[in-house]
């Protein structure tokens, strides 16, 4: 099973409590605040932070949080 990462927008700290109640007890879910600094775009139009696709920024701004599915660990079978 995969893990999930929930990123909360820095201007929406009110969501932390609600999301922690809903997902906090599940071991496969991590909840973090967005730690990025400054603007997502540089003056040239390049993305300053290439870790997240552009649509992630839009979703984070619109709904205040973002859920990202992380692939599960692959184990070698003998």
Characterization of the model:
- By secondary structure, the chain is α+β, with helices and mostly antiparallel strands.
- The chain has one domain.
- 26% of the residues lie in helices and 22% in strands.
- A 3-stranded mixed beta sheet has the order 2-1-3.
- α1 (14-23) links the parallel β1 and β2.
- 5% of the residues are buried.
- The model has no long low-confidence stretch (mean pLDDT 77).
In short:
By secondary structure, this protein is α+β, with helices and mostly antiparallel strands. It contains 2 helices and 3 strands; from the N terminus they run βαβαβ.
How many beta strands in the DSSP annotation? 3
Radius of gyration: 15 Å
**Biggest sheet descriptor:** 3 strands, mixed
**Fraction of residues in helix:** 25-40%
Low-confidence spans: pLDDT under 50, at least 5 residues?
none
How many individual helices?
A: 2
Distance between the termini: 20 Å
| Overall geometry | globular
Strand content is 15-25%
Q: What is the mean pLDDT? A: 77
Q: Total domains, how many? A: 1
Note the run of SSEs as H and E.
Answer: EHEHE
Features:
78 residues, alpha+beta, three-stranded mixed β-sheet, 3 strands, 22% strand
Question: Helices and strands in order, then pairings?
Answer:
Elements: E1 3-8, H1 14-23, E2 29-33, H2 54-63, E3 65-70
Parallel strand pairs: 1-2
Antiparallel strand pairs: 1-3
């Amino acid at each position: 099973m995969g893990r999930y990462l929930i990123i909360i927008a820095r201007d929406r700290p009110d969501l932390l409590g609600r999301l922690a109640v809903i997902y906090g007890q599940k071991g496969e879910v991590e909840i973090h605040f967005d730690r990025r600094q400054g603007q997502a775009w540089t003056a040239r139009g390049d993305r300053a932070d290439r870790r997240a696709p552009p649509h992630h920024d839009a979703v984070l701004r619109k709904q205040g949080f973002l859920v990202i599915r992380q692939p599960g660990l692959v184990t070698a079978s003998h």
